[in-house]
Design goal:
214 residues; mainly beta; seven-stranded antiparallel sheet; five-stranded antiparallel sheet; 1 helix; 12 strands; elongated
Length: 214
């Protein structure tokens, strides 16, 4: 899944009134879980673009735990070291494997309560962070293999299947974490033995072996 943030000096605590910089950040997070659903490992790819309007030296780029208006500790580090940016604008990309207890706890939290985390870009002029953004936008990807034998009850004698990818974009309120808007895209590739007429394509609630509502 992805988390995204719009970054501004106004979001720092306290706000940085001497900077007019802007930025946007995206973190692509991969989660590996055990049979019990516990996060056991993961990876992150950071992408950030920024405009400072002056020459700067970047000193850090992190995900911190902390709600809006709260400063919190670094929980996932991009490993950015001192990086001069003479033009004051550009973009950077980092990829890291996540294995420590702090990182795995953050990984689990970002998948459920992203609004309690923020992304921060630090400079020599503002070592505590110059542009910051709360994680209020997410993109999730869900896959499913569909078989007629998975229906409840199974449909005997029908050799039909499909592969489905669902992309879900979510926007949350930065303070409460409540979902304020969203969009979904279904992408299916299917095989039926004969011609068919489709009458519906839904996501339902329900565990395996249980029929649930749309």
């Amino acid at each position: 899944f992805y988390v995204k943030a719009k970054m501004s000096p106004d979001n720092e605590m306290p706000a940085i009134t001497t900077s007019s910089a802007t930025g946007s950040a995206r973190a692509r997070l991969t989660v590996n879980r055990d049979a019990g659903g516990n996060v056991i490992s993961g990876a992150v790819t950071f992408d950030v673009s920024y405009q400072f309007g002056r020459s700067v030296t970047l000193t850090g780029f992190h995900i911190h735990s902390g709600a809006v208006d709260v400063n919190g500790p670094v929980v996932i580090n991009s490993s950015l070291t001192s990086t001069p940016e003479p033009d004051g604008s550009g973009s950077l990309n980092f990829t890291r494997n996540l294995t420590t207890a702090v990182e795995l706890t953050a990984l689990a939290g970002l998948s459920t309560t992203p609004h309690l985390y923020y992304i921060n870009l630090h400079t020599t002029d503002n070592s505590g962070g110059e542009i910051r953004g709360q994680c209020t936008s997410e993109t999730f990807f869900y896959k499913a293999t569909m078989l007629s034998s998975n229906e409840v009850p199974p449909i005997a004698g029908l050799n039909a299947s499909a592969s489905v990818l669902v992309t879900l974009d979510v926007t949350r309120d930065s303070s409460s974490g409540a979902i304020t808007s969203g969009a979904i895209m279904f992408d299916a590739s299917y095989q039926f033995p004969t011609g068919v007429t489709f009458t519906g394509f839904h996501i339902h609630t329900g565990a395996a072996g249980v029929n649930g509502v749309v």
